[in-house]
Amino acid sequence: MKLTTGKKIAYGIGAVGKDMVYALSANYVLYYYQDIIGLSAAFVGTILMVARVFDALNDPFMGVLVAKTKTKWGKFRPWLFSGTVLNALVLYALYAAPVMPESKMMVFFSVVYILWGVTYTMMDIPYWSMIPALTDTQAERENLSVVGRTCAGIGAAIMAMGTMLMVGILGGDSERTGFRYVALIVAVIFIITEVICCLNVKERETKMENVSVKEMFRALFHNDQALTVVLTIVMVNMALYLTSNFIIYFFKYDFGGAGWKGDYTLFSTVGGAFQIVGMMVVYPLLRARKIANEKIFRIAVGLALAGYGVLLGLVFLGFEHTLYALFVPGIMVFMANGILSVLTTVFLSGSVDYGELQNGRREESVIFSMQTFVVKLASGVAVFLTGIGIDLIGLVGNTEDTGEIIQQSASTITGLRLLMTVIPILTLIAVFFFFGKKFKLTDAKMAEIGEVLKERRGEA
């Protein structure tokens, strides 16, 4: 079945709405419940990590439920639609926390956030698992996967660009009110985008492969290159999530000023735009084959490291209040992240061919299920480290909607600057050396593997 452009666009639209929701949760829940509501950052970070790990482990079980589903609308779309509606409702509840004592708020947050993760899995697993049911050609499946990943990046970038601006516009001095309205708007957009996806993307009859946690880890430990790519994805995403979690505190308490939300929004908009540019730039490079993929990867990691180095220099040389100076490291880091997000997906696809050559099994669904698992795990660990770090440096949240920002101590500001730069730098240095030592799937190696597999399949 050949996919029309309209169907590809509809599938991509679903990814935009889906990742708008994920970005709102991944990037702002800690800030909302620690800085605005007033819960301990360490407590919030712990709950977020536990929920993300539980959610990641829950993915295979959701896959089994989807595989056993039989309706006149197919296996995937009923779960995609119902999971979307439920998740949209829980998302609104998450950012519309009622006023209550701290002990009750801790229970409320724990229950609602875990529910958010469960309902998100209800629609996320069917969304990605649906690809083999939409087309039977490998090239089109890979193309659709790239469309989905790219549009997901666009959805995340939209939230990075607009969240705090909309919070300020809709809530005025009350960030609590602003977040409630933003969550409502995003929930409505989410439902609309997934309805468009469900109505325009029709499934073929197909047998879905059930993937257990045991199978995922067995596939990894029998495929050293899949394991290498997965660990690379974990570290790259940890650096990204650490940055996105800390940067809002930097703008509010270090950069400061009455217009900090506008400055943060402008910085995020420029960064998000260049993240998309990074994604767009890498595709022609991959097609041209002028620069080896592994070399592009190292260049991107080097670009991100240089960006963090510039940021570290700016904040300790007295330029931390110069917004246009901050654009320089922001552009470097965000553009590098855009490139890396595409390349890691390409490398993961290559590890499937490598596994077929080594083990005689083509475990696409197993390995790509692992990608969702590890991204969730990385974001959980990152937000846990952020919560611990915020409590360690003694940052005091702005829990009153007075419009006035609490002045932090000099040691707290220094700690914040170190946390948002040094930890990502160390993580990316580890990525650079780990990848260089362990990664074998160079362009030349992949061409060799492709020829061997062609011969083997021809003989079969």
Can you summarize this structure?
The protein is mainly alpha-helical. It contains 15 helices and no strands.
3D architecture notes:
The protein is mainly alpha-helical. The chain folds into 2 domains: 1-206, Up-down Bundle (Growth Hormone, Chain: A), CATH 1.20.1250; 211-460, MFS general substrate transporter like domains (Growth Hormone, Chain: A), CATH 1.20.1250. Helix content is 82%, strand content 0%. The relative contact order is 0.14.
Lay out the secondary structure:
Blueprint: H1 5-36, H2 41-67, H3 77-94, H4 102-129, H5 131-134, H6 138-171, H7 175-200, H8 213-221, H9 224-255, H10 260-288, H11 293-316, H12 323-359, H13 364-392, H14 410-438, H15 443-459
The mean pLDDT is 84
The CATH topology of the largest domain turns out to be: Growth Hormone, Chain: A
Q: Count up the domains.
A: 2
Would you tell me the structural class of the helices and strands? Answer: mainly alpha
Jot down its keywords.
460 residues, mainly alpha, Growth Hormone, Chain: A, 2 domains, 15 helices
